[in-house]
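Sharing a chain and its predicted structure for anyone who wants a worked example. Both blocks are below, sequence first, C-alpha cells second.
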Amino acid sequence: MPENKLYEYAVIRLVPKVEREEFFNIGLILFSKKANYIRVEYVVDKEKLSVLKHELDFQEIDNNLEAFKQVAKGEKSSGPFSKMEIAERFRWLTAVKSAVIQTSCPHPGMTNDLDATFTRLFDELVK
C-alpha cells in the first residue's frame, strides 16, 4: 500500500470587486513537498458569473489564471518564480493578496493518492 503523504491545498477564488470581498470558487491548488507535487486546475463558469451586475474581462481572467498555473508548475515563462522551490511557489501563490485572483488560506491533509484527493476536493469545492 502506498504511504500517506502530507499535502496542502487552497481554493482559488475570483473576486470581481475586491472592495466588496465577494468571491466565487473557481479552482484548486494542491501541493505536497514530500512528493514534489503541485497541481492547479480551474474552471470559469461564464454563465454563473453572468449574475453579476458588472462586466468581467474573461480574457484577462483567463490570462491571470494561466500565469498562476505557470508559476505553480515552475515554467520558465513565469520568470524568476521558475527558480523557486515548489514549496516557495505554493507559499507565494497562497499569500494574502488584494487582487481579482486570490486563494483561501492553505488547509492540510494526508493521502496516499494525491490525484484522487485533488479530484475529490475540486469536485466538492469548485464544481
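Comments welcome. The radius of gyration is 15 Å.
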